[in-house]
Task: inverse folding
C-alpha cells in the first residue's frame, strides 16, 4: 500500500520538560490512529493539537516510566468521563504491563481500576523478539538497555506498507541495527550531545552508527538541555512539539 502515513510529535521532551517540551507522545495517522508512548503530559498535547482521542485505537508503550506511560490513567478517565468513549482501547506494552496497569490507575485515581466503563480496555504484553499484530498493526519489539529493573523495548512498526522504528529510551545496543533496518523512519532518543551515561543515548554515538542503520530517515527526540543547547551543531533532523512528517 502507498497510502501516506502521518507522524505528529505531540510531545518530544524528556522526563523533566527540558526546553519547555511536553513528554513523549507520538501520533501515527492513516486508515486508523494510534500512539507510541503516552507520557504524563499527553492529554495536554492531545488537547493542544486538537486530536480526537476517541479515534485512537491502540497505545504502544516502549517502557513503563512515567514520562512514557504516565498519561494512561488520564487518557482512560478522559475517555470515560469527557469523551463518552464506546470504542475498544488496546494498550500494548512490555512484559509486566498487565500488572502495572491497575497499579498506575489506583495510584493516580483510587478506585478507578475497578470502575465499569462503556468501552473495554485490553492490555497486551509484547514479547521481546517476537513479531505480533495488534489491531491490524504489525509490531516487532526489540530489547534495549534502559536499566535492569524493567523491560524496555524498541518498537518496529509496520503500518500501511511503511516501517517506523522507535528506539524508546536506551543506551546504544546492537539490537537497534535490526530494529531500524530499512525503516522509512527511525525515531531515536538523543538525550545528550556527547556525554556517555548509562541507560541513555547521545548524539555522537548515534552519529557513529547511523549509516549502518540503513534507515531512510532519522529524527532525534527526547533531548535534554545539554542536547537542545547544541542543536545548531547537529546535522540531522530533530523533533519538536507539534512537528508533523509524512512518509
Result:
Amino acid at each position: 500500500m502507498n497510502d501516506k502515513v502521518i507522524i505528529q510529535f505531540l510531545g518530544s521532551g524528556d522526563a523533566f520538560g527540558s526546553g519547555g517540551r511536553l513528554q513523549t507522545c507520538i501520533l501515527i495517522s492513516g486508515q486508523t490512529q494510534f500512539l507510541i508512548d503516552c507520557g504524563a503530559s499527553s492529554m495536554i498535547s492531545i488537547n493542544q493539537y486538537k486530536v480526537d482521542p476517541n479515534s485512537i485505537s491502540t497505545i504502544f508503550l516502549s517502557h513503563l516510566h512515567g514520562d512514557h506511560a504516565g498519561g494512561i490513567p488520564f487518557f482512560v478517565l478522559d475517555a470515560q468521563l469527557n469523551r463518552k468513549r464506546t470504542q475498544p482501547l488496546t494498550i500494548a506494552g512490555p512484559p509486566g504491563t498487565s500488572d502495572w496497569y491497575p497499579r498506575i490507575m489506583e495510584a493516580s485515581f483510587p478506585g478507578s481500576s475497578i470502575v465499569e466503563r462503556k468501552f473495554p480496555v485490553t492490555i497486551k504484553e509484547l514479547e521481546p523478539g517476537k513479531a505480533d499484530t495488534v489491531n491490524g498493526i504489525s509490531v516487532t519489539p526489540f530489547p534495549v538497555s534502559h536499566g535492569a529493573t524493567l523491560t524496555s523495548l524498541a518498537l518496529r512498526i509496520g503500518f500501511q506498507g511503511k516501517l517506523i522504528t522507535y528506539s524508546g529510551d536506551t543506551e546504544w545496543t546492537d539490537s537497534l541495527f535490526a530494529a531500524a533496518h530499512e525503516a522509512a523512519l527511525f525515531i531515536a532518543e538523543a538525550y545528550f550531545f556527547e556525554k556517555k551515561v548509562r541507560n541513555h543515548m547521545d548524539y555522537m554515538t548515534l552519529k557513529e552508527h547511523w549509516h549502518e542503520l540503513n534507515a531512510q530517515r532519522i529524527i532525534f527526540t527526547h533531548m535534554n538541555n545539554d542536547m537542545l543547547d547544541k542543536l545548531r551543531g547537529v546535522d540531522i533532523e530533530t523533533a519538536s512539539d507539534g512537528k508533523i512528517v509524512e512518509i
